[in-house]
């Protein structure tokens, strides 16, 4: 075995995209038998790889989920290889604190994220009707983590071909021959977001209702969201400027009115 090294690779940065989110269903539901009295929702909160991305357990050692304090064992930790997710039932929404831990050879400190548990329908009327009809809600987002000047050992993990092994399936090669492991699907394996989405209603709300049904997340979709946010930011700035002007106009009118009152006094 080659000796371990914690030497950092200068001027090098690697990024990894992954998903944080939750699914939810209305109870009763076969996936959540015998829920406590008063619990109307079954849900699962998770940290997952992109549909065509590398195995996140190559860089993620464990995930700690901190739930609302009313849950027994509110702080729960899932070790690699995962899956990094927990299932529960309840009735209310709340923020889930998420702490990401990395392998010792990475030399990286834990990082924090937060996900707000979404249990109710959202989006357009059409989207909400589909969520009710299918009794299935997905609320997720793409997160990015950057490793600046990774250690040599950690760099090997992040660039190993083995991190894509989970995307392979067995393909028969005839009687008596060893099956071949091949990639399946229309999206090539990559650590980056695909340029375009493959399947799934890309027009759905930002929080990824179509996850697991074709892979909505893409660089194109990311640019669309950024463009929408920038347009909203400009609109908000205009509204603020208009309100400032209106405030100044009201101040001027009040001052003028004050002068007239003083003149009459």
Notes on the structure:
This protein has 265 residues and is α+β, with helices and mostly antiparallel strands. The chain has two domains: 13-156, YEATS domain (Immunoglobulin-like), CATH 2.60.40.1970; 220-265. The chain contains three helices and ten strands, in the order βββββββαβαββα. It has helices at residues 125-134, 152-159, 219-264; strands at 13-26, 41-49, 62-66, 75-79, 84-90, 95-101, 111-116, 137-148, 168-171, 180-183. Strands 5-2-1-8 form a four-stranded antiparallel sheet. The longest helix has 46 residues, at 219-264. It is extended and about 105 Å long. The termini are far apart. The relative contact order is 0.16.
How much of the residues is beta strand, in percent? Answer: 25-35%
Task: Tell me the major beta sheet.
Answer: 4 strands, antiparallel
Structural class: alpha+beta
- Mean pLDDT reading: 83
Radius of gyration: 25 Å
Order of helices and strands: EEEEEEEHEHEEH
Question: What is the overall shape?
Answer: extended
Report how far the terminal alpha carbons are from each other: 96 Å
CATH architecture descriptor name of the largest domain: Sandwich
The number of domains: 2
Poorly predicted residue ranges: 200-214
Looking across the biggest beta sheet, what order are the strands in? 5-2-1-8
Task: Just give the CATH class of the largest domain.
Answer: Mainly Beta
CATH H-level homologous superfamily name of the largest domain:
YEATS domain
